[in-house]
Amino acid sequence: MTTPTNPLGQNPWGPPPTGMPGMPQPPFPQQARNGLGVAALVVGIVGLVFGIIPFLFWLGGILGVLALIFGIIGHGRARKGEATNKGAALTGIILGAVTIVVSLVWLIVIVTAVKDVANDMEDEVRKQQKASTAPAEPGAGAPDDEPTEAGPATLTFGATHTYEDGVKVTVSKPRPYTPDEFAAGHDKGNHAFQVTITIVNGSKKAIDITTALPDARDAEGAQAEQIFDGSGASEPFTGTLLPGKQAKSSFAYSLPAAADKEMQLEVGPKVLDYEHAIWTGPTT
After folding, report:
1. Higher per-residue pLDDT: 242 or 210
2. In this structure, which long-range contacts are made by residues 72-80, counting pairs with CB atoms below 8 Å and at least 24 apart in sequence?
């Protein structure tokens, strides 16, 4: 039986439905993979909000890194045509980078503040020690049977200072250091030097080394600025050092070109329990 046709040769019942078996199906459009671009934008915004809060900057830094990663992947998908939100991914990259920088600035500010507090505590302790050992009457000397207070031990770079309980501190010789372009604490025209401080706990008890923050001075006695950057210029000690263990950290300082031939560094493993020792010597 044949299908009747009209004089123009067309099927009077219209074209067959596209869903019939054996008929070619139209291609379905591919769904855009916009998830990471959106995630980069949202995480970047939230991270920046946390990053500007002093005590939540560390969380902002983590979110900033995630936003940067999500944004880079999402941007790559948009360039391949797999996603349609290239602008959102790019905004997430920018927000992530800004958040990371803000978090690093907060870290530098807080570390500097902790160092200033530790210095103030040390100065106060020294004032109290001097007051307790001062003669009772002005101009009177100390009694012969009472020992006078000794000043900090002075050593050359590379030498080791050993305390009575067995704790040892060694400061390496200064070596030239090149800060990266985002470094803080380094002025143009200055020369940067880095030292490595090693603390060995030879005592029978654990010691807190968090407050072992060294101070450096140049050849003219002016305090040198400590350098912080993303390449590990200065890495302060953290935590508790157990007996028989050692800890190493590097510290970088910026010295004026006119006074960079010699450096003095003062450090102790803990402000309240140990007297600081001083290391001096040439920088070259």
Report:
1. 242
2. 73/36, 74/34, 74/35, 74/36, 74/37, 74/38, 74/39, 74/40, 75/37, 77/33, 77/36, 77/37, 78/37
